[in-house]
Amino acid sequence: MRMVELFTAGPARVLGIERKIAGGQAAELTIFSTNHAWTYHVKESPSKSRNSPFDGWAFKGAAVATVVGGRVVYKP
């Protein structure tokens, strides 16, 4: 629960966004998997920079979907 607070309500408070999820309203959220394993490859990055010390590193945990206005806008 603390992790959810740190990634949601905390930043919203800092930015002055006090939006709550309510029944009947379209959701805006990111679904995060702590089990999703992936490897960072600088060539596949959308960044124009190619000087990353993390090229080839394996990571665990990633966003697996983002919903904005009730529609899925990101799903790898």
Plain-language structure description:
With 76 residues, the chain is of the alpha+beta class. The chain is built from 2 helices and 3 strands; from the N terminus they run H-H-E-E-E. Strands 1-2-3 form a 3-stranded antiparallel sheet, with no helix packed on it. A hairpin with a 2-residue loop joins strand 2 and strand 3.
- Report the uncertain regions: none
Structural class of the secondary elements?
alpha+beta
**How many strand segments?**
3
Oligomer: single chain
Order of helices and strands: HHEEE
Radius of gyration: 16 Å
Mean pLDDT: 88
Strand line-up in the sheet with most strands: 1-2-3
**Strand content bin:** 25-35%
Biggest beta-sheet profile: 3 strands, antiparallel
Can you tell me the overall shape? elongated
Number of helices: 2
Measured distance between first and last alpha carbons: 26 Å
Helical content class: 10-25%
Jot down its keywords.
alpha+beta; 3-stranded antiparallel beta sheet; 34% strand
Would you spell out the secondary-structure blueprint of this structure?
Elements: H1 2-7, H2 9-15, E1 29-39, E2 58-68, E3 71-74
Antiparallel strand pairs: 1-2, 2-3
Short description:
The chain is α+β, with helices and mostly antiparallel strands and 76 residues long.
